[in-house]
Fold this sequence. Notes:
Blueprint: E1 12-20, E2 29-32, E3 36-40, E4 45-48, E5 55-59, E6 65-69, E7 77-83, E8 90-95, E9 111-115, E10 118-121, E11 141-144, E12 147-152, E13 159-167, E14 171-179, E15 186-194, E16 203-212, E17 219-226, E18 233-241, E19 246-249, E20 254-257, E21 259-267, E22 278-284, E23 296-304, E24 308-313, E25 318-326, E26 343-349, E27 355-358, E28 363-366, E29 369-373, E30 375-378, E31 385-392, E32 397-402, E33 411-417, E34 420-423, E35 439-442, E36 451-455, E37 462-464, E38 469-473, E39 489-493, E40 500-509, E41 515-523, E42 536-541, E43 545-551, E44 560-568, E45 582-589, E46 601-611, E47 616-619, E48 625-635, E49 638-651, H1 654-661, H2 679-687
Parallel strand pairs: 4-10, 20-26, 28-49
Antiparallel strand pairs: 1-15, 2-16, 3-16, 4-5, 5-6, 7-8, 7-18, 9-11, 12-17, 13-16, 13-18, 14-15, 14-17, 19-21, 21-24, 22-23, 22-25, 25-26, 27-30, 29-33, 31-48, 32-33, 34-47, 35-38, 36-37, 36-40, 38-39, 39-46, 40-45, 41-44, 41-46, 42-43, 42-45, 48-49
Amino acid sequence: MKKKMKLMSLVVAMAVIVGAGMNPVSAATLTLDETVEISYNKSEFNISVYPGNASYSGTNMAGDAVTGVFGDGTVSSYRFFNVNGDATALISYADDAGIVAPVVSPDAADLDGSESWANVWTATDPGVDFANAADITEDTLARAMNITGTIDISDMSSGTAYVIFGGIKQKVTLTATMSGAGVDDEVAEYEIQLITGNAGKNHFWVSPFNFSDAGGYDTITYHYTHDGPARRGRFVGVIIDRPGVEIISPTNGDTVNISDSLPLIWANMDPVDGNDVWVDVWFGTEPNDLHPVPDFDLVVEKGLNTESVIVDASAVDTYYWQVNSWIYGADKLDDANMIIGSVWSFDTTTDPAPTVEIHTPAKMTWSNNPVGLDATVTDSGLSELFIAWSADVPDGIDVEFDPASADTEDTTVTLTKVSYFVPYVINSSFEDPALDNDTWIYIEDGVASWSTMWSVPGSDTWSPVASQGGAYNPNDGDFTVGIPDGENVAWLETDYVSDHCLYQQILDTIEPSTTYQLSVKVGNPSLYNLGATADYRIEIVGAGVAAVDGGPSPVDNTSWLSASCTYVSGADDVADPNVGQPLAIRLIGEAYGTELDDGYEVDFDDVTLSADGELDQMVYDPEMSTVTVKVAVSDAANPTPVEESIEIDVYQDACEMAKNGLNTPVAATDFNADCITNLLDFAEMASAWLDDYAATEADERP
Length: 702
């Protein structure tokens, strides 16, 4: 364990528990969706159930603005609670007399009073930014605990129950139970522990409980508990949303061409009994969905199973429409049983945006082989059209379009694999990942391109090891002279019996007759070393150790040592067994020989490796590369581009594509696996002609 570990105090501990008893009759489910914190430390928050604008907003514990929508913006039912004046009963101060039943008031000992931190709108439209401060009441939530209520879902097969609640200091639990005759209960629960770090801090949440396939269930019972006292409990209310009418065309926010006979198309809600649904359809240029208003006209009145209507949208404007439904039967076509639909909108234009479709499927090809691209653009032609082909290109790929302007529907693209430069040492100053000041991680936690190893005692063998090194962003006092490069350094902890190292495999092999130089800065974080440090050494590694340098690191944190070693490779692998072997480097903290409770530490930074003075190398990626090719179309009236794309896999050559992309088997006579049998294959066969691999004498049985 690294000695400089910092302990972080948890402010809020959360646990979400979702339990569901298996229903033997149906596949009904009750699940808890993401619970959202909407208020912290008595900050006001907004709740609206206004049709078409059913939503919430607030500020969470992190100080971030939080917004959300209840369902599709139109809810089916709601009920909000506070406590009466003498704190003897929980009461509902606002409701729609719908499917949320009043709660049975808890004991007076579980009640304390009311607060007004929530701004609740039910009958006046606050607007999307809750700008109209028209609260229903001054007291919009209850200081209470142990609250139980029911929701009637007997005529609903699916929907969402939103419970709005809060608490301070103690544990808060919210449990929802879906019940029905002859079926197992479905249970979902949210629990949060507010510990002492939140003393005096009020929290409020919105918890959505989704239910589906609930035909055999009658009620959802919600139970809110707070570990007391009652004055620390917070309960706001319950909102129910059921699936509404499904919009088909125009889609919400769409832009369509003007028309005096534009079809509005939707899919109706499922009826509760029988096979009929009745709808009212409102249409116009007025966004207010309260009716009747002069410019929001009733274009369908109690239409029986109606799912479309033709309207006049012949002007350039923003149009709004709404479908209100009756699903309870012919004897309940009244306002009390009307389900208010969402308000949708669309814009009209005399010059609709162009569209594009690429007919070319996803392809595979090989380097420098042209690929034809076929696209169809549809446009009104009323304003200038723009077409632009492009590609998202990984390293090592060049892209060329023909024509070069890439501004036609049909074009040709040529993708070519090329070599590119990369540094010999990747993540040379341990800056990936970026770390905050005075924080650290282990290598295995994501320090790019590095690993940690240890030398097995009594041998020259190195083996992987975890939790012995990493990267950290030093505190201002860790090194009085700062650090050599960037923000991070590497730390390495040793023990008394084995060396530990930071290891990196370089992307290249050792070339003949080449001069390699490894350089690194070495530091002593004396704050963590009890006035001493581990000795170090650095190594260039091939078949064995090719070059080494080492010694003691600085005696304290006031300086960094510069260490380097140089290796000149031989003319070939006969003269030098390292030639042709993978090139690697090791930054080593050496065993210190005396048993201690904690190991010594040595730090490294600014690692460079050069070959003949060059710090980077040309590499070629032999693997298949995937390129995304895109076409974007727009016109003068619709400058936001519409895009389509395909992916093209690029192999080095046609043989690689055949073998790896098409899984074509290599012929038995193709000895060098280049996809053709020719004299080169014969040469390989001839080179072994008459070679005899038969045994020459008796040998031990394996």
